């Protein structure tokens, strides 16, 4: 008597998905929605669309247009085009890496980091842990004391006071912990170091200040549109009322709608994936922790009950 081990394949819904695949080019291995629908059938049965056939030329045309605009901006405005130049570089790299695999860069970088990790792994674990804590602390202290004091800003004593306060917080949290041996010191040290480097880049360099000042102005302008939307739905008099329900709540709803649109187009998934990848590599966090931490600034305020 033989048993039939074959099972019927589960029914797959052919209806509309809750959210479509990304419409944004992510890498050379990613496909567009129409390509994903054609994976189960022969290429001969699925004729290529005009865009798919000449996609390379479309992207080249886009690159030439934005490059021509950037050349004009560089000639007319010069040094005032820093943020626009960064956006141009980002879009150009996105278009390039859609047709050129990222292994062109990731493979050499992997070899370099692999060689560094081989050298680091030779050091005993206890010494490696001590160096991993002492070197960042020495770097933070030395930079804090070495930076010149500007008139009207904090002096070195104020900086040491702030640094001492940070140390006190860490000591208190360590002393009140129930499982001190389970503390991931790599995550703690790298997180503090990244915050210090980010603050140093923003506050002590003109490039960092210009970039984040532009981002701040863009966010303020974008959120200010919520007031125009409220005035369109109600009236200008109601939009000018300075209470919570007419000031904060419309901005929250407006930003939530923007996040949903970006998520629908696949941009939010790309942002979260890249930030999570960076956190896993630098801080040693798990994939779930990294994804939640990367997505929290964008979606946590709009998914809580």
UniProtKB/TrEMBL annotation:
Coiled coil: none annotated. The keyword Transmembrane helix applies. Residues 1-45 are annotated as: Disordered. Pfam families: Nucleos_tra2_N. The keyword Membrane applies. The chain crosses the membrane at residues 56-76, 82-98, 129-148, 160-177, 183-203, 241-263, 275-300. Keywords: Membrane, Transmembrane, Transmembrane helix. Residues 164-236 form the Concentrative nucleoside transporter N-terminal domain. It comes from the Eukaryota. PANTHER family: SODIUM/NUCLEOSIDE COTRANSPORTER, SOLUTE CARRIER FAMILY 28 MEMBER 3. This is Concentrative nucleoside transporter N-terminal domain-containing protein.
């Amino acid at each position: 008597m033989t048993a039939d081990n074959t099972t019927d394949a589960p029914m797959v819904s052919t209806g509309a998905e809750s959210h479509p695949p990304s419409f944004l080019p992510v890498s050379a291995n990613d496909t567009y929605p129409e390509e994903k629908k054609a994976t189960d059938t022969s290429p001969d049965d699925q004729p290529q669309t005009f865009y798919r056939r000449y996609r390379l030329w479309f992207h080249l045309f886009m690159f030439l247009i934005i490059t021509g605009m950037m050349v004009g901006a560089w000639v007319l405005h010069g040094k005032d085009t820093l943020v626009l130049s960064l956006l141009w570089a980002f879009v150009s790299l996105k278009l390039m890496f859609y047709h050129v695999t990222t292994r062109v860069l990731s493979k050499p970088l992997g070899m370099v980091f692999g060689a560094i990790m081989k050298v680091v792994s030779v050091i005993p674990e206890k010494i490696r842990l001590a160096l991993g804590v002492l070197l960042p602390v020495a770097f933070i202290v030395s930079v804090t004391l070495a930076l010149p004091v500007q008139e009207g800003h904090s002096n070195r004593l104020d900086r040491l006071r702030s640094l001492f306060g940070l140390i006190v917080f860490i000591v208190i949290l360590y002393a009140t912990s129930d499982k001190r041996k389970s503390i991931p010191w790599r995550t703690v040290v790298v997180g503090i170091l990244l915050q210090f480097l980010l603050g140093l880049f923003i506050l002590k360099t003109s490039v960092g200040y210009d970039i984040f000042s532009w981002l701040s102005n863009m966010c303020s302008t974008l959120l200010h549109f919520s007031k125009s939307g409220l005035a369109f739905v109600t009236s200008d008099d109601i939009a000018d009322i300075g209470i919570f329900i007419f000031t904060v709540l419309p901005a929250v709803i407006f930003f939530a709608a923007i996040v949903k649109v970006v998520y629908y187009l696949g941009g939010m998934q790309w942002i979260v994936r890249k930030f999570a990848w960076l956190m896993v590599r630098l801080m040693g966090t798990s994939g779930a922790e990294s994804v939640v931490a990367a997505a929290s600034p964008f979606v946590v305020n709009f998914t809580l009950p």
